[in-house]
Amino acid sequence: MMKFLCIGAFSLASLYYSQSYPVSEIAENLKKNASAVIRNESTVVEINKIDEIVYKNLSVITILNKDAISYSIPKIFYEKGDVISNVKVTIFDDKGAKMKSFSKSDFSDMAANSQGTFYSDNRVMALPYTPTSFPYTVEFSYEQKDQNTVFIPDFTPFDSYNISLQKSSFKIINKSGINLRSKTYDSPFQYAAVQVQDNGNEKLYTYQNIPAIDNAELVPNPQKILPKVSFSLDQFNLVGKKGNITSWKDFGLWYHNNLLTPVSVSTPQIKSEIAALHLSGSTEEKVKKIYQYMQSKTRYIFVALGIGGWQPMMPDEVQKKGYGDCKGLSNYMKTLLDEAGIPSYYAIINSNSSPISFDVDFPKMAGNHVILVIPTEKGNIWLENTSQDIAFNHLSYSTTDRNVLAVKSTGIDIMETPSYTSQQSKEKQVLTVQINPDKTITGKGKFSYTGNQYDFNLFYVSLSQKEKNDAVKSKFSHLNFENVEMNNFTNNKDLASIDFDLNFKASNYSKAMGDSFIFRAVPIYSSGFYHADENRQLPFENRFSYEDDYEIEYQIPTNYVVEEMPQNGLITSDFGTYLISFVKKEDKIIVKRSVNIKKGIYSKEKYNEYVNFRKKIISADNSKILISKKS
């Protein structure tokens, strides 16, 4: 939702002449794990007055392989009223020799979304350049004058994995007379540091020689590893709407009065929608009925219209057209609740697979998503309004475990979204498996997923029956399925659970040893690969707590007996607990298996300890049961 997002191309215009950038001059440590190297990136920000800010940008990026092509494409995001000038692009080969040059007229101009110009005031200029060989270097410079002064970007080294940095600078010159606040956030892992030169109204920030963050096993989001500097003016302009942001309260009042109140308008049609629902019961029951009604008649479409793309669509427009974005759908749902006499709050959030929260001590315009929160006597109800499939009062992994800016008539209230415990984020699996003398198995299973594990299995909802079967076959590919069929699939939108049954047959599950067979203890599990790393450079993160609870009943063939079973096992660690047990009951073997994983960020020194923990689990899952023919 932020306006100034130019992928890989923020930079300063102190250098407007072409240089030579041979790839041989890149240090080896910056090539390691890198698909692209930012050679020189600089940004000058001139704040002239409350409604005028100028960005002078230069970036030089060497693309080492095809994985980083998208990172290098010159792009300029803008809105109506912005002035774009001095656009220059030069392409260099690996020796640093100039190959091609481009100007503003070579750029394509399009809506900054994939759904057409009708839905967006946001525009993007992009240069459609296709490389013929690697590596190559792109030098890109331009100036941009903007009337909106609320979106001063953070200064970070980079925001993606497998990108390294030689040098990046960010100069901010404040001529406006308005107080400019800034805050430096150091790297919690000392991965990099920012250098600062303070000359009163001019400040220069610099990063140098920062290696790439490899997208290795369990590496946290780069935002959690790297330093950054944030900026915010005490007074700002957004498409002619002036306000102040000296506190979350003041900013919330401006947001409520300027962005939400003008579109918090009901209509006779919306009133009749609520009347037709014949609401009764508790607040929770009423909210659920309204929410599931709203889901049944709307769909998500990206919209970036109105006051810089931050103001929601009018609720009657959503009601008539049946679509909207997160802002419009949340505002429509809020209007329905208002008509039912149920207070709710428009809540701005950072939607990201790794939780990112707002700084309670540094108010600024931020966030990329909107949800609703409804306070009740039993606690808060949280609504994700963009999905037709998600359960009532369930937030997905991309919005749990962080704070939101709840906009009220009295200002902003910073609130915490739910965090699912391992018991709430659970896979329950009950299997009945027949061991056959031809080394095949036939089985039936019941599966249930809740919490974050509900989120990861919600994709099944949109699949055909064949696609469901194929998806299961792919997910559990360690079994040699001859056939597999998913039945009785249910998305329980009241309890936030995905439930289904499986019927399956798999070949070569057991291994013949004379008149005996040997087979592993656990047939269906989520496989993983864990490798020790003696040179681990970064911490690792388990982003979610979860629990897997399995019960497997093996039926052994007629005239066979159980010769050997593994010992019961218990593995405990700082990262979680694993338990497996074996019980022989007539011609059956009952295996119970439970895994409980804790979320958290752990030091790099503990990584091999974690790998060892996971390998022990894999070994226990693969422990062998021996059955033999009766003599």
UniProtKB/TrEMBL annotation:
Residues 55-211 form the DUF3857 domain. InterPro entries: DUF3857, Papain-like_cys_pep_sf. It comes from the Bacteria. This is GTPase. It comes from Chryseobacterium aquaticum. It holds the Pfam family DUF3857.
